[in-house]
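TICKET: design request
STATUS: open
ATTACHED STRUCTURE:
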């Protein structure tokens, strides 16, 4: 359940920097109740609404636009001992963004036991940037240095108030206010959960000694920023209570109370490792209290919660990603599901091979090519056309006539050519075959050259070699008189 409203984290500087965090939550909760009972009630009600909305919005991680948050650092200092260089703050900003992109120092040590529940960059996608303008809209470097007498004794009563030696909180709809100073009672930091309205302490305070420190690697600010974005601790006071996040197992104690700091970070090679309340505990979660070297990751459910509070319209944090204090967003190339075309940032997702073109979805697809073609393949599995009967598609993808001489030995082949020529005396028939051409020109008898006859001669005539009938003289038994052909058989 979401019941922690403000959270203090305690630390000790050991020789080996084996650190754990501890929270005085009950004290601050009681204090806030006395100061603003209505606010506490509203926060609880709002977080109940948030739990229900998150449970029914499984698409939250799919809405994966990068969410940017402008930070103004209020450095409360009294000189070199408590001051911070810009370099140290920039280093802590880098650490913080590593935590919120799943690339932090010990992320590689994450347990394989919870691999399906551990958030990756695509789940979180939250980025912190130094604010670029101040409250008046003037150019600003993101760091507000405040020389003050409370630098070594700041707490929730003075850090947020100029009148008490701190700095009044900047517009929380446009800035994430982070204060640094030396906290009393060895406290590491504290922060407040988000709601539907803000309040004068709606920011985070961290001890200046954790900022830019390579040992902490941003884990302190990451933990407190988790609270500021709606994350409770993963442990509660009993096994029956939980943090309201489905993928963080219930546990009744912070990890450092049952893990020896000399023990190695749990590999979870066995299911029973670090078990409480009948669960294997997520002791490496950034919202746990564990020794620094074992703090490794956030869960996917926690990522959903944080993104919810940055996008849900009724959340007071939802205006931050569009704050005027952000610089122009760095273009994020997007080639998801794309192999070609523009990446949205002036670059390219790739180019297509010859014969392919990039479609509107950013994928290469075959381009049909029928230039100079009227048949055959278009190169993409389709066709440039079909040829009419009597034609076929040649190697140049052009329809061409197919000569047809089947059963023919002469005459046209149907394509402007010939099936052959006939020898002299023959002609080509309509069926494409050579046939003999009878020749009786100047002839009245005899052969027509094709096995037929040009005619027959009358009795008394015979056909000569020229195919002409001529009279045959007849003097048989005659010695004189007419031979029947205009001649004579003799004279007496």
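STATUS: resolved
RESOLUTION: sequence designed for all positions
ATTACHED SEQUENCE:
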């Amino acid at each position: 359940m979401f019941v922690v409203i403000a959270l203090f984290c305690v630390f000790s500087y050991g020789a080996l920097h084996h650190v754990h965090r501890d929270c005085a939550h009950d004290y601050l909760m009681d204090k806030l109740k006395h100061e603003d009972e209505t606010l506490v009630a509203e926060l609880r009600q709002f977080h109940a609404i948030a739990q229900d909305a998150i449970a029914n919005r499984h698409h939250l991680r799919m809405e994966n636009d990068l969410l940017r948050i402008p930070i103004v650092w209020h450095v409360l200092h009294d000189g070199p001992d408590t001051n911070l260089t810009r370099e140290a703050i920039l280093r802590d900003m880098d650490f913080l963004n590593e935590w919120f992109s799943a690339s932090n120092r010990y992320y590689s040590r994450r347990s394989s036991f919870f691999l399906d529940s551990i958030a990756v960059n695509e789940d979180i996608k939250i980025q912190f940037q130094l604010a670029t303008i101040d409250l008046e809209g003037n150019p600003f470097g993101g760091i507000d240095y405040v020389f003050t007498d409370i630098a070594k004794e700041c707490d929730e009563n003075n850090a947020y108030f100029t009148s008490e030696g701190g700095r009044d909180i900047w517009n929380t709809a446009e800035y994430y206010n982070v204060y640094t100073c030396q906290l009393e009672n060895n406290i590491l930091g504290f922060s407040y959960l988000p709601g539907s309205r803000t309040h004068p302490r709606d920011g985070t305070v961290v001890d200046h000694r954790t900022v830019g420190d390579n040992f902490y690697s941003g884990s302190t600010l990451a933990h407190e920023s988790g609270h500021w974005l709606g994350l409770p601790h993963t442990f509660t006071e009993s096994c029956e209570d939980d943090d309201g996040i489905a993928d963080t197992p219930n546990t009744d104690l912070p990890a450092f109370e049952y893990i020896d700091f000399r023990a190695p970070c749990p590999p979870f090679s066995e299911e029973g490792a670090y078990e409480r309340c009948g669960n294997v505990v997520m002791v490496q979660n950034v919202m746990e209290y564990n020794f620094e070297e074992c703090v490794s990751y956030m869960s996917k459910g926690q990522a959903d919660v944080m993104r919810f509070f940055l996008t849900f319209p009724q959340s007071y944090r939802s205006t931050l990603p569009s704050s005027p204090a952000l610089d122009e967003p760095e273009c994020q190339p997007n080639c998801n599901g794309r192999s070609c075309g523009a990446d949205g940032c002036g670059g390219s997702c790739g180019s297509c091979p010859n014969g392919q073109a990039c479609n509107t979805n950013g994928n290469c697809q075959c381009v049909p090519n029928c230039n100079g073609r009227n048949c055959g393949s278009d190169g993409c599995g389709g066709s440039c056309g079909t040829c009419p009967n009597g034609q076929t598609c040649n190697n140049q993808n052009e329809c061409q006539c197919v000569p047809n001489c089947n059963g023919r030995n002469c005459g046209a082949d149907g394509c402007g050519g010939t099936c052959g020529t006939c020898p002299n005396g023959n002609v080509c028939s309509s069926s494409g075959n050579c046939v003999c051409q009878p020749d009786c020109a100047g002839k009245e008898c005899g052969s027509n050259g094709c096995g037929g006859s040009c005619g027959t001669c009358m009795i008394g005539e015979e056909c000569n070699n020229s195919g002409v009938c001529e009279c045959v003289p007849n003097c048989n038994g005659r010695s004189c008189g007419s031979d029947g052909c205009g001649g004579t058989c003799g004279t007496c």
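CLOSING REMARK: The longest strand covers residues 67-77. The radius of gyration is 51 Å.
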